[in-house]
Amino acid sequence: MRLARLLPLLLALAAPVAAQERLVLGLSQEEVAITATFDGDDLLLFGAIARNAPPPDEPAQVAVTISGPVRPVTVRHMERRFGIWMNTQHVEIDAAPSYYAVATSAPLEEVLTHTEDMRHSVTLPYAIRSVGNQVLNSADYSEALMRLRGRQGFYRLMEGEVDLQQSTLFRVRLTLPANLTEGLYEARILLTREGQVIDELTTQIPVFKVGLERWLYNLAHNLPFLYGLLALSLAAGAGWAASAAFALLRR
User: Fold this and answer.
1) Contact 123, 117 (CB under 8 A)
2) Rounded (10°) CA dihedral 170, 175, 176, 177
3) Which residues of 164-202 are buried (b: 16+ CB within 10 A; e: fewer)?
4) First-to-last C-alpha distance (Å) of the chain
5) Which of 12, 22, 80, 198 is the most buried (most CB within 10 A)?
6) Which residues does 28 contact at the CB level (< 8 Å), separation at least 6?
7) Which residues, listed in sequence order, are joined to residue 47 by a DSSP beta bridge?
8) CA distances from 6 to 2, 9, 54 (A)
9) Where do transmembrane segments lie in this chain (predicted)?
10) What is the pLDDT of residues 23-44, one digit of tens each?
11) Beta bridge partners of 77
């Protein structure tokens, strides 16, 4: 009887220890500064898969997402009526990231199952939230937003762009467009095996204006009246300077 009680414990001790895997992440830069000459930037994410035992035979895969600040968006549908383009319907999308990129180490279907994709909101259709709309075919509006921002370079899917070496070291380079929205950007790295997520790591990347751009931005939002006076003064000064220059040229 005592042996029967001890048998499960003995079997557990005799069984091989499953490999515990976790992600270790590094960034080429801790923040992105938007200056007057900012025309986009490259962000390098790199890291490793730390283990305490040999990995299983099934290969590991890595998925990386970068998400910008989330904002509500109104998507309008225009139709030509009586020779004039008019807004006929619109859909309020509750939350859409201003920037969203997904990079994987293999084709997406090899990295994540559909269930895991939906559970962890990895791909763009699950990162956009649009609920409570009464418009027919409201999903078409979300797809239109994805197409539009995709053409503008704000939404990207990069399958196979994560360089994964010997199922241990990984790196990926992401290109950020010039007209980024300010705020905290969230980087997520997911470690998967056989389509299942086994570890996830999240970090934030601040993206903010600096220097004169930051001062003007704060002035416009915190002291709009003073900002308006400054803009009028600069415009009047520029007009007076141009008038004086033309007067000198006529002499």
Assistant:
1) yes
2) -170
3) beebeebbbebebeeebebbebbbbbbbbbebebbbeee
4) 117
5) 198
6) 42, 43, 44, 45, 46
7) 25, 170
8) 6, 5, 29
9) 225-249
10) 988 888 888 887 767 778 888 9
11) 89
Q: Which residues contact 6 (CB under 8 A, 6 or more apart)?
A: none
Q: What is the pLDDT of residue 185?
A: 93
d(CA 48, CA 7): 38
What are 233's two structure tokens? Answer: 């003064």
- φ and ψ at 19, to 5 degrees? -70, 125
Nearest to 192 by CA among 10, 51, 63, 50: 63
Residue 116: how many other CB atoms lie within 10 Å: 16
What is the pairing mode between strands 183-193 and 41-51?
Answer: unpaired
Q: 104 and 160 in contact (C-beta within 8 Å)?
A: yes
Identify the H or E element spanning 21.
strand 21-27
CA–CA gap between residue 143 and residue 151 (Å, rounded): 12
pLDDT band at 10, cuts 50/70/90?
very low
Express each pLDDT in 185-198 by its tens digit. 999 999 999 999 99
Look up residue 246 and give its amino acid.
F
Distance, CA of 159 to CA of 102 (rounded, Å): 8
Q: By C-alpha distance, which of 192, 166, 48 is closest to 109?
A: 192
- Residue 21 contacts residue 60 (beta carbons within 8 Å): yes
Contact status, residue 204 vs residue 186, Cβ threshold 8 Å: yes
State pTM to two decimals.
Answer: 0.74
Half-sphere exposure of 221 (CA within 13 A, CB side): 6
| Residue 181 phi, psi (nearest 5) | -85, 135
